[in-house]
Design goal:
The chain is mainly α and about 180 residues long. The chain is built from 12 helices and no strands. It has 2 domains: about 80 residues, Death Domain, Fas, CATH 1.10.533; about 80 residues, Death Domain, Fas, CATH 1.10.533.10. Helix 1 runs antiparallel to helix 6, helix 5 packs antiparallel against helix 6 and helix 11 packs antiparallel against helix 12.
Length: about 180
């Protein structure tokens, strides 16, 4: 397991490259996880990272949520920085796959979540966190799967889960992207 000072150093490096617009977009995306008053107090990416650490959404062995935020604000460069300088990968980086699936699966995301081994409580938590967005529900469930089962969270297992959930077209597209 990584040591905390190295973890914080890497978050600091990433935080230095976050623009005010990036921070604003990330604050919007985490509004369901952080109280409004607390969000208003966040002025830098480091403040945001600190709150995510306090809420145990992020830890030295679990940075999938930060990687997802960075991908969603089109800062893959910072995902690569985080991964290159600090070995924080959890299995594979599946952020792009999660986004693709979330954009294409629709209501069938629940079946996929079950095939990947998520509990009904995990599924309901994703629904309650994002009651008006199927895409966000799906992405939240996939991130939960990656966090709960980091050793199993691989592209191969994800594609297998899609096939077992009868989402062969999405699975084929992911297979073709890898080729």
């Amino acid at each position: 397991m990584a040591n905390v000072p190295g973890f914080r150093l890497q978050l600091h490096k990433v935080g230095q490259s976050i623009t005010p617009d990036d921070l604003s977009a990330m604050k919007f995306m985490v509004a369901d996880k952080i109280a409004k008053r607390k969000l208003e107090e966040i002025e830098t990416a480091l403040d945001l990272w600190e709150v995510l650490i306090e809420k145990e959404i992020v830890s030295p062995s679990n940075v999938a949520y930060i990687k997802t935020l960075l991908v969603n604000i089109n800062r893959q460069d910072l995902v690569h920085l985080l991964e290159a300088d600090f070995n924080c990968k959890q299995g594979e980086n599946l952020c792009e796959e999660f986004i693709f699936i979330s954009q294409n699966i629709g209501r069938d995301w629940r079946i996929l979540a079950r095939r990947l081994g998520l509990s009904e409580a995990d599924i309901e938590e994703a629904v309650e966190a994002h009651p008006k967005s199927l895409r966000e529900q799906c992405n939240s469930a996939l991130v939960c799967w990656q966090n709960r089962r980091p050793d199993e969270a691989t592209r191969k297992v994800l594609i297998s889960g899609l096939r077992r959930a009868n989402n062969n077209l999405i699975a084929d597209n992911l297979d073709n992207q890898a080729a």
